[in-house]
Amino acid sequence: MLVLKPSCECCDVDLPPESTRARICSFECTFCERCADQKLKGVCPNCGGELVRRPVRPAEKLAKYPASRERTFKPQGCAGRQ
């Protein structure tokens, strides 16, 4: 089950579980749409994997399986790709 991390690892912007602007890799590293597209060019800086839109968990399931509250902030790893 996806962890649904609450924020972007690059800029720390909030990414609530219902957000369609969250991007993840296969290891669930989480970024906002802006950082994923503009800074990272669709590639995870941690694993090199593809960044894709994170699915939205249905509200009735979110109550039973809540999103994570643990924030991961690593701005030093998000300098961007050339």
Strand content: 5-15%
Question: Structural class of the helices, strands and pairings?
Answer: alpha+beta
Q: What is the domain total for the residues?
A: 1
The overall strand count is: 3
| CATH class category label | Alpha Beta
Q: State the end-to-end CA separation.
A: 33 Å
Count, helices: 2
- Fraction of residues in helix: 10-25%
General form: elongated
Biggest sheet: strand arrangement = 2-1-3
Taken in chain order, the helices and strands follow as EEHEH
CATH architecture: 2-Layer Sandwich
Seen as an oligomer or otherwise, the chain set is: single chain
- CATH-defined fold name: Herpes Virus-1
| Largest sheet: number of strands, sense, barrel closure | 3 strands, antiparallel
Rg (CA only): 12 Å
pLDDT below 50 for ≥5 consecutive residues: which ranges? Answer: none
Mean of the pLDDT scores?
Answer: 94
